Amino acid sequence: MAKRIALISYHTCPLASQEGKETGGMNVYVLNLAKALARDHHIDIFTRSQDKEQPHIVQIAPNLRLIHVVAGPETYILPNTDKDKQQLLDSLPEFVSEIKSFQEKEKTSYDVFDCHYYLSGLAGLELQKAQPNIPVIMTFHTLALMKGLITRTGISPSEKKRIEAEQMIVKQVQAIISPSENESRYLESLYEADPQKIHTISPGVDTTLFHMMSQQKAREVVGANKDHKLIMFVGRIEPVKGLDVLLYAMKIMIQKNPDVKVCLWLVGQNADRKAEVEKLNQLIHILNLHNEVTFVPQQPQERLPFYYNAADVIVMPSHYESFGLSALEAIACGTPVITTNVMGISTLITDHCNNLISTANNPLLLAEQMEHILIQHTERDLIPNVSAFDWKFVGEKVAAVIHLLQDTYHNQVQ
């Protein structure tokens, strides 16, 4: 039976790339999950309006709408400062109130609130107070305690609020969808989550978009030198991604193999991350890598397959990542991916090739692993098959959780 699902993505819009905003794995995840669920169910995505010029209701597909909810200023707010984080929290009650008004106006109710990121979880629980028969599903995407472990700068007041919110959400929601076994263990041990609530479901990949193609053709499209070995990172330019480690590893590998023509592309530069780019440029200057490293602006999803196929290896040296969607996209394109063992996707790669797993903060090991692929050409035939990770199957797994949850939760509240 078709369900009506309210999918809540409060602080970031799934259509952000089309609206000229910063995007990340969560944007891709929410939009593709919604499309997969909309094959059999009715989906409304609620997100905070960030641009008054955008229509407030967007019909994405026959069973899929996106509703831009006016809550606070209709401007883009990136939650990377205490001030911006507080502004998003302050606008949350208005966001919840407007969703209730929307439901009343449309005379509609939902079978489940599916929430993404902790701010959306707070909204979902507030909505549930007025509609206690509707269960709440939570997907965190990142956990504040884990990000705090990486920064080692202490817990700021805003981060303390977030951790407390996540702890409360874990206790009160009816189900949690975790992207990896690593994340599930963190939720159980660090957040004391009930294991019965946790459903480990890996994110998906659009296999019609991300697939193998001629490397020569791909390099022509992106403008890469056909004679160079091309190392590539794809993602947001931020400290947790470990790009300083990648620069150290690049220097080590070049010193060991001075005759090899090699370059590094960092794909994902965005005006909102200018400070981090400046830090990395300082390190590039110190390491004398001016001629080898290129920053590439953030790319729309439709162009990313050309970048993945142009690369000889994708390197994701993150200090922490709940999964690593870019890595899965690259694997679907047939390109070897080196990740750290703290990334959720590492368990998928480990089953096939341990030599593609690095450790965080270990540039010597990372340099050796890049050399294996670029110069010794090992591991190229051991790339895992990702056909089972098509979004269609991810949607089916999430829908199964919703069906199960509805039956059990309704029995509890009646």
Describe this structure in words.
42% of the residues lie in helices and 16% in strands. The protein is of the alpha/beta class. It folds into two domains: 4-204 and 390-413, Rossmann fold; 215-389, Rossmann fold, CATH 3.40.50.2000. Helix 2 runs parallel beside helix 3 (118-130) and helix 3 (118-130) crosses helix 5.
Please write out the topology.
Blueprint: E1 4-8, H1 25-37, E2 42-48, E3 57-61, E4 64-69, H2 82-106, E5 112-116, H3 118-130, E6 136-139, H4 144-151, H5 157-172, E7 175-178, H6 181-190, E8 198-200, H7 215-222, E9 229-234, H8 243-256, E10 262-269, H9 274-286, E11 293-297, H10 304-310, E12 313-316, H11 325-332, E13 337-340, H12 346-350, E14 357-358, H13 363-374, H14 391-413
Parallel strand pairs: 1-2, 1-5, 2-4, 5-6, 6-7, 7-8, 9-10, 9-12, 10-11, 12-13, 13-14
Antiparallel strand pairs: 3-4
Key descriptive features of the protein:
2 domains; 14 helices; alpha/beta; 414 residues; eight-stranded mixed beta sheet
- Please give the largest β-sheet: 8 strands, mixed
Could you say what the CATH architecture of the largest domain is? Answer: 3-Layer(aba) Sandwich
CATH homology-level superfamily of the largest domain? Glycogen Phosphorylase B
> In CATH, what is the class of the largest domain?
Alpha Beta
Mean pLDDT rating = 90
Helix tally equals 14
CATH topology of the largest domain: Rossmann fold
Strand order of the largest sheet: 3-4-2-1-5-6-7-8
Whole-angstrom Rg: 22 Å
Secondary-structure element order, as H and E? EHEEEHEHEHHEHEHEHEHEHEHEHEHH
The shape is globular
* Number of DSSP-assigned strands: 14
- Determine the strand fraction and express it as a percent band: 15-25%
- Helix fraction bin: 40-55%
Low-confidence stretches: none
Structural class: alpha/beta
The figure for the number of domains is 2
